[in-house]
Amino acid sequence: MSLRFALIGLLRERPASGYDLMRVFEKSLHQVWPATKSQVYAELAKLADAGLIEVTDEGPRGRREYAPTEAGLAQLRHWLVEITPEENQRSETLLRVFLLGAVERPQAKEFLLAVRERTLADLARLDALTAGIDWDRRRDDDDDLVRYGLMAMEWGRRMMEMTRDWSEWAAARIPDPRS
User: Fold this and answer.
1) Could you tell me if 76 and 68 are in contact, meaning their C-beta atoms sit under 8 angstroms apart?
2) Angle formed by the axes of helices 2-13 and 70-82, to 10°?
3) pTM
4) Which of 14, 15, 128, 179 could be joined to 65 by an S-S link, Cβ 3.0–4.6 Å?
5) How far apart are CA 88 and CA 80, in angstroms?
């Protein structure tokens, strides 16, 4: 259901095609709310059928640009401020941590250190992404997607830093079998 609102919210900023929306997901939303091409295009069709978005332009090879309708914006606003978000997140990593007692201690420690390495790689990708954006110039444009996107990216950074610190802490809690 949240993909529906992510698409309407992105289209609120400016009309876009399915391809344009996929680029936004790949560049900035994939850590928060991943979506596949088939999911995006199927949801765009459903939103159009429901009258929540409309085609604003058609181009070559069936390219369509969409924009939200007033009904779509009303549903987005309702979802944003009146519906409590579900806070139950699934984490396969944490499920595995919970069950690490099923493997030898060196393997458990190796798993935790691998979590650290993946997190460091994610932080490096986030740094590269943020370095490529002129935040000062974009902030002056009164661009909501940039303003709130920056907040979401900062949340991601802080979560990654916490995960890095936690994985180091957890790995240090596993005794070396030789000692």
Assistant:
1) yes
2) 120
3) 0.70
4) 15
5) 17
For residue 37 the two structure tokens come to: 């091409």
Low-confidence stretches of the chain (pLDDT < 50) are none
- What is the per-residue pLDDT across 126-145, written as a single tens digit (0 to 9) for each? 888 788 776 665 555 567 77
Q: In angstroms, what is the C-alpha Rg of the chain? A: 21
For the chain, the residue count is: 179
For helices 2-13 and 144-172, give the axis angle rounded to 10 degrees: 140
The contacts found for 64-73 with CB under 8 angstroms, 24 or more apart, are 64/17, 64/18, 65/15, 65/16, 65/17, 65/20, 66/11, 66/15, 66/16, 66/17, 67/11, 67/15, 68/8, 68/11, 68/12, 72/8, 72/11, 72/47, 73/8, 73/12
* Closest CA relative to residue 14, chosen from 145, 129, 132: 145
> What pLDDT score was predicted for residue 158?
94
pLDDT at residue 137, rounded to an integer: 57
DSSP character for 25? I
Q: What is the DSSP letter of 179?
A: -
pLDDT at 68: 96
